[in-house]
Each structure stands twice: as structure tokens, then as C-alpha cells.
Amino acid sequence: MFSNWRKTLFRLHGWIGINLGLLLFVICLSGTVAVFSNEIDWLLNDDLRAEATDEPIAWDEIEASIDETFPDGVNLGMYAPLEPGFAARAYVALPDGQTRKAYFHPKTGELQGHTSFFNTQRFFRSFHRRFFDGDRGIVLVTLMAIPLLFSALSGLLYYKGWLKQLFTVRRDKGRRLFGSDLHKVAGIWGLLFTILIAATGIFYFTEVVFTGTGNYQALHAEPLPNVPAETLPDYGGRATMLSAGVLADRARAALPGLDVRGVRLPLGPTDAASVTGQMGNPITRDRANEVHVNPYTGAVLGVQRSSELGVVPFITDAADPLHFGYFGSFWTKALWFVFGLMLSFSILTGAYVWVVRSEPSHRTAKADREDGLSLRPFPWLRGAVVSVALTLVYCGVVVSSTIDGIQYYAPQNTGHVPVTSIANGDLRADLLCTKPCDLQDGSTMALRFEGKDMPNPKAVTLTTADGDTISLNAYQQYHRGEVTTAPGTAMTLSLATWDAPPVQKQFEAPSPVPDDQMTTAAAWPEAAPGVWWVVGGFVLLTVSSIGTWLWGVWRAFQSSQSKMQRKRRRSTTPRPDVKLPPTA
């Protein structure tokens, strides 16, 4: 009975390798490169480099540089250097739809350069997470963690005395035993790593399920308080925000010992400023330690400590550092990289070894009465051919989605069409329509307020002639929403403040912008030149590895067929020294 159970485990181990090996290989290899993707960008782009310093981050100077460089941009967050020698960074959303990555000297706050959101880190994290294939891709990738875990555990339970095989690699016993030994040694040494990667991957799949069912917050701690809506009238039409440096100081006072790693300013009047960082527990993400600060008064609204998180929220914030190995700086990432390579290529070698050792026995060959090539020696190969074919077809889909995903980060061929202006008290704003401004099919209209302080209107609405009311949601100095109506339709813009009655402005919905007035977008995002070489090298390595694997499987299949044919010929050809009985 125990023997049958072990044989079942072996068949499960081999089935996973031959049917899902290609997909698991691509996922694991891309994740392995993603471990050092930030360091690759550091090597390729001088703007990411800055001398290491023990002085506090110049948050105020970084914020001032952002305001000067991107007067129409939205500051999405400022972050400390990832490692000593890295520059501080910030993300800025521009009116044309781009998100720029800007890099600053951490001591002086001086801008060192800025690029599109696309770089090596973005490519490998997005590709590894979802193949640039939206919800379908992320479900598929995270779901693959389950067979990866089964494969690791089934291999462990099948092999006897695996501790004795930690250093056993027989080079003089043929390719089959050499490949088998390499596969076993890599699997044994990387067993705990593989289980960790599979376990965190399964947790990512759980996140996908919870998100899809609208229960994502169940995996997190209770959200920290924001600015009470009832206090908004106290700040007037334009709420003056405290500087990023003051907000960071207030957070340190509320959470002594906090190493501030990020400052995110509010996007709307009721949003709190969020200050995140580390407090002696690097196994969790920076966001596990968070302080919400009222951006207008500096009052602390709420504090979250990683040491006080529940089990599930703690796992949520620990999964990413454990999955990519960045909790221990360079050396843990180096270890993760080595084990990741071992895991990636052991998947392919294991599948190849399964093919080779599954050659038919003499009894199987004797039972096969068909001549020529046959799938009989590999009964499991019928399903494997289909699964491998489907995997290769999906790889074609991935190529298309990856190209589209990369182009998404290129500058958009959009601008804004001025529609009308409105003023009420100290609030003045221009209503803009995003090109091509085709309201018939739906387009974004944004009310852009002047100045850098937080606009704090009581209400902003658009009303069509049919009586449909559209609320424009706050997004720092913008209030915007999706509008669908016919060109030329009468519309009314209403702007109300806390201490003055609403002001209304009537106008006609604009017509779409003609094609000859549209700007031409770049086909590919701006990136350091070496980024494309890295992406191309990864594609070449992946394709050549898969091609080599397919060639090896086919050679093993052909070898098996040749052996079968030779055995059949020997079994049907009489030996020379054997006398045949006389015929009647």
C-alpha cells in the first residue's frame, strides 16, 4: 500500500512538471530577475544614484522641487532611498495621463532627473504578477502557486533518504542520472525556499479572491481615521497644507523610533496625510507602520504599529518582503536570486528527466503491435501535448498583452480642451475636457483649481439639460468625473463654497476634437536605453530555454521510439543458430 502511495506521488510530481512546467518556469524566472530589478535600474540610470548619507531626508526640499518641476502635476508620494547609494524618489501624475518617476538627492532635495513610469522594475514586477494580462493573468499566475507547492511536497515525500543526496551528483553515469541528480540536489537545497514562494503565492491568490468578492479589507488592519468631514468648513475654500517635513516630524513624535520611509499627501480635502516607515521589523512592508496626520492642523489622527497587527494583516504586509527577499537588504536578495535560478531551471530539468526515465519497458514494447511512431510508450504524453500546446498559445497572447502593457506607460496622445471658467470667493477654476473630448462615448471633464493649496469647495456638480447630475470627485487641485452626453447639449456647472451660495455657469457640451488637431503619442515609453536590452535579454533567455526543453523532450521521445522498433525487430527475427521445426 505504501509503495502504491509513493508511486502516486511520483506520478503527480511528474504530471505537474510535464504539464505545467513551462508556465511555472516563466513565472519563476521572471520573479527571480524581479528580485534585483531595482538594482538593474540603478546600474542603467545615473539619476537613481546618490551618495549615501546618515542625514534626515530633505522632505520639504523634495516637495518644493516637485512643485517647481511639475506645476500642473499631482504629487502621489515621496519615498526615501531604497538602499544606501540610491536617490530618493517621487511619483507625479500629469494632466496628460502620464505618471512620472522623479529622482532627488536625499540630502538636498535637488531633482536629478525623471522618467516615465516604465523601467526594469516595472516590467518584471508587472510581468511576474500578471503577464500584463489583467485579471486573467493575475488569477493564472497566483493559482500556479498551488501546483508548485504540490510538486515540492510530492518530491520530498517520494524520495527516500534525501538528506544523503544533498551532495550526490554522478557525472560518470550518463546524462539521465546526471540530470536526475542535479534536479534532486537543487530541489533538496531549495525545498524550504520553494515552499515559502508557493505559500506566499497562494496568499496572493487569496488576496485576488477577496478582492474579487469585495472583501479585500478583511485582510488588512482597520483603516486609520481621515479628516472629519464636519471640520471642512473650518479650513475655508482653500485649505493650506503643512509641509511634508512637518508632517514627518509629527509622525515621529506620535510613533517614537519611526524611520520615515514615505510621505503621501492627501488627494482630497478629507484625506489624511500618510507617513509610513520602519520600526525594527523589516520583515513587513513600510506601510505596516503608519501615521495619519491632519494635513491642515498637524493633529495626529491615528497610529498603526506593525508589532500590534493581527495575524492576517501581519501576513498581508509580510508576504511581499518574504516573496522577493528584500527584508534583509542586498544579501537576502542575493540568496533569493540564487535559489530562484535553481528553482526555475530545476523545473525544466525535472520535466526532462521525467520524460527520459519514463521510457517503455520490454513488456510495454511487446504489447505494442503498431508499427512506426506511436504515443504508446508515453501514455501521459497525450495530455502533455495538449497542455504544452495551450501553454505556447497563451505565450503568444502574453506577447501581445505585454506589448500593449508597455505601451500603456508611453505618453498619451491627450491634452485638454478649455470649456469654461468659474469663480466663487477665493476659488477659481477652469473646466477642461480631455482630448479627444468625445462626450458621446464618454470622456473625462476636470475642474482645475488655481494654486497649490488644497481646494476645499462644498460641492462641485455638472448638470445636463436632461437633469442628470454628475459629481466631480476631488483629486488635489482637480475635481473630475466621467461625462456622457451629446455635443452641443446645454450644461450647467455649479461651484459652492462653505461661506457663499453656489455660483452657476451655463455652457454647451463641446464637440470632439478633429484628428488633425490631436498630438501624436510616442509608441514606447521613455526609459534608460539599457532597459530594452535587459527586457530583450530576458525574452531571449526564456525563449531559448523553452526551445531547448522542447528539443530535449522530442529527442527523448524519438530515442524511445527507436529502442522500441529495435526490440520489435529482434523479437520477430529468428536467430541464425535456431533451427525452425519442419513444416508439414
From TrEMBL:
Disordered: annotated segments: 562-584
UniProt keywords, alphabetically: Membrane, Transmembrane, Transmembrane helix
InterPro entries linked: PepSY-ass_TM
Residue stretches spanning the membrane: 12-36, 138-161, 182-205, 334-356, 377-399, 531-557
Pfam family, one: PepSY_TM
Organism: Longibacter salinarum
Protein name: Peptidase
Origin: domain of life: Bacteria
